[in-house]
Amino acid sequence: YNSNLVPVGIDQVPHVEIAREIVRRFHALYNVEIFTEPQPMLTKVSKLPGLDGRKMSKSYNNSITLGEDEASVEQKLKRMITDPSRIKRTDVGNPELCPAFDYHKVFSTAEEREEICKGCTTAAIGCIDCKKILIAHIQELLTPIRDKRKRYEQEITDVAEFLAPSQAKANAVAEETVAKVRQALKI
C-alpha cells in the first residue's frame, strides 16, 4: 500500500527491517522501483513493560486494550507491579525500577512525574497514590475511544457494509501494485 512509515514498538523494528530488505532485494533483482521502502515510526517511549513487569503480551494478560471497560482498566492498574524493593508503604522506592513509572513517562505531566519521584524516593506517597494518578490519565485517554466505539456499535448494523468503501479503496491500490509486479516479473 506504499506506506512509508510504520508505527511500531522498538521490538517490532526487525520486522520492518525485513520488509525493507525484501523491497531492496526485489528492486535490485528486477531493476524496477515499485515498492516504497518503509521506515519504522517510533514514539519517544517506544516500549512499555507489561503490567506485571514482563514483556507486554495479550497472551500474558498483562496489557490494557483500547476496548476494555473502565472497571477492568482500574482493576488491572491497581494490581500492577511496582518497585519490588518497596514492600511497605514506609519503604523508600526507586521510580526507575518501577514498571508503573514507565507508564507515567507516557501518560503523566512532567510536574506529576517530578512529584511522584520525590514522593516515592522519600516514602511520602505510596504505590496506590502513584497508581491513582496513572488510572486517571489512562481513563481520560480511553473514555472518548469507548464512547466512539459505543456510538459505532449502535449506528452500524452491518460491519461488512461499513468497511466496504475502505476495502474497495485498498483493493484498488493493491491491484495497481500487483499489476506492476506482474509486469516486472513478466507474468
Describe the protein's architecture and organization:
This protein has 187 residues and is mainly alpha-helical. It contains six helices and two strands, in the order βαβααααα. Strands 1-2 form a two-stranded parallel sheet. α2 runs antiparallel to α5 (127-155). It is elongated and about 75 Å long.
Brief description of this entry?
With 187 residues, the chain is mostly helical.
Feature tags:
187 residues, mainly alpha, elongated
Radius of gyration: 23 Å
Mean pLDDT score, rounded? 94
Structural class: mainly alpha
Q: What share of the residues does DSSP label as strand, in percent?
A: under 5%
Helical fraction equals: 55-70%
- Largest sheet: spatial strand order: 1-2
Helical region count?
6
Furnish the topology, listing elements before pairings:
Blueprint: E1 5-7, H1 13-30, E2 39-41, H2 70-78, H3 99-107, H4 110-121, H5 127-155, H6 159-185
Parallel strand pairs: 1-2
Helix pairs in contact: 2-5, 3-5
